[in-house]
Amino acid sequence: MAEPRVSIQLTVAELLTTEAFYGGILELPVRRALTAPGAPEHLVMEQDGWELIFVEEAAVIRTHPVLEERLTTFPKGVGMTIHLRVEEIEDIYDTLVDEGLEILYPLEEKPYGMKELWCFDPDGYLVVLEETSR
Q1: pLDDT 10s digit of each residue in the chain, 134 long?
Q2: Torsions phi, psi of 59, nearest 5?
Q3: Are residues 89 and 105 in contact, defined by beta-carbon separation less than 8 angstroms?
Q4: Nearest to residue 121, comparing CAs of 12, 42, 33, 41?
Q5: What is the fold of 6-132?
Q6: Which among 55, 71, 75, 129 counts the fewest CB atoms within 10 Å?
Q7: Residue-range domain boundaries for the chain
Q8: Dihedral (C-alpha) 117, 120, 125, 127: value to the nearest 10 degrees?
Q9: Stated pTM of the model
């Protein structure tokens, strides 16, 4: 597999919770990465030349202590929106509601041929889920 051309790293509170949201609820291809000795454990989601990497905040602070004040002062996800294409968006919406996750805009059919909903992941990152209308 070719090296991704774009990598974005997000700091999260707990990998298990992140894995449950992205891999479980959204059914996206999230996997635990093989790490070198001493490197922090992390999750990776790769597709079409990009990758999203999730690393626990505590591990980032251990490696980069200069970031601690910023990571603990500012809420995660401010000014960032992650757009993801999914399948079975109605089922995902029902699960998000059942799990009590915060929905910003509920599921809606858009005039441009997409079903769309806006929610926050467990760490407060804004996620827009989209599915092509059939």
Answers
A1: 577 788 999 999 999 999 999 999 999 999 998 877 878 899 999 988 899 999 999 999 998 999 999 888 877 777 889 999 999 999 999 999 999 999 999 999 999 999 999 999 999 999 999 999 87
A2: -70, -40
A3: no
A4: 12
A5: 2,3-Dihydroxybiphenyl 1,2-Dioxygenase; domain 1 (3.10.180)
A6: 75
A7: 6-132
A8: -10
A9: 0.88
